[in-house]
Amino acid sequence: MGRYDGRIVVVTGAARGIGFGTATRFAEEGASVAILDLDESQAAEAAGRLPLTDGATAIGIGCDVSDAASAEAAVERVVSELGGIHVLVNNAGITRDNLLFKMTDDDWDLVMNVHLRGAFLMTRAAQKHFVAQKYGKILNLSSVSALGNRGQANYSAAKMGIQGFTRTLGIELGPFGVNANAIAPGFIATEMTDATAARLGIDIDDFRKMNAEANPVRRVGYPEDIAAAAAFLCSDEASYVTGQTLYVDGGAKLG
Ligand code: NAP
Predict the structure, then answer these.
(1) pLDDT digits 0-9 by tens, 233-254
(2) EC number(s) of the enzyme (predicted)?
(3) Cα 131 to middle of ligand 1, angstroms
């Protein structure tokens, strides 16, 4: 028996990277899963690769989390096609890094819209189902960059905003059987960090090695590391944990 048998889990931005790794873990543990991503065909293709257990299903839905109509329509499709919603993972993300003096209005707005507005819109759409059924789990993706990172004024502000948002969700929704937590990953090997290497003109393997050496456990993280923490925080074993941000970063920000 899996921890997520009979549960319906939505993961945004899950066609690849941390989102796909997390969706995979929920599927392995028995959940039916909706993969949301900008491109519906990529979302559907990723859904088709999930290791579903008997009786579970998966769908891919095209959704721009920063658009209210799109976010609401996606949640309603999940409820009508999969039969409900129990877990929401707000994972979709982008970076538009630049030093402050070179950062454009668009760089700022785009990052705020996907991370903060996106998490808000998706959560607002899901919470009406959670509150009605007196059960729900919300997991938001923050980042170690919330603590400050050169070239990421927009992203670090959004990721610290996610932590405040998560605490408030914990306060408001706790009485209705809903837990909300966040994970702040350190360096995770995905296309997002590969793109950062490319932007900095550093070879991907060198960039990973550099980041591995910068933390106490001397390795980079993988989507599976985040997925394992997500599977705990969204489980009933964690029902007394809410409003928290768990740093999953190999100890990168300890010292
Ligand atoms: P990734 O590989 O770039 O994947 C992000 C996914 O989100 C992509 O499939 C992307 O689709 C999708 N997406 C972007 N904008 C969207 C929107 N408006 N609506 C729906 N989907 C959208 O990133 P990742 O590394 O897996 O990161 C996942 C999350 O973890 C992000 O929130 C990120 O900020 C956070 N995080 C990552 C790291 C890391 O080291 N990788 C560290 C800390 C936190 P397209 O490909 O179509 O753009």
Answers:
(1) 999 999 999 999 999 999 998 8
(2) 1.1.1.100
(3) 28
48's CB contacts (< 8 A; 6+ apart) are: 58, 60
Torsion 34-37-39-45 (CA) sign: negative
Q: Which residues pair with 11 in a beta bridge?
A: 35, 89
Query: Distance, CA 15 to ligand 1 centroid (Å)?
Result: 9
Model confidence over 151-197: pLDDT tens digits? 999 999 999 999 999 999 999 999 999 999 999 999 999 999 999 99
Residues lining ligand 1, Cβ inside 6 A:
12-13, 15-19, 37-39, 63-66, 91-94, 114, 118, 141, 143, 185, 187-188, 190-193
Instruction: Return the sign of the alpha-carbon dihedral for residues 137, 143, 147, 148.
Output: negative
Report in angstroms the alpha-carbon separations of 41 from 59, 66, 106, 234, 239.
Answer: 11, 19, 27, 27, 35
Beta bridge partners of 61: 36
Predicted TM-score of the model (pTM): 0.98
How far, in Å, CA of 79 to CA of 207, rounded? 41
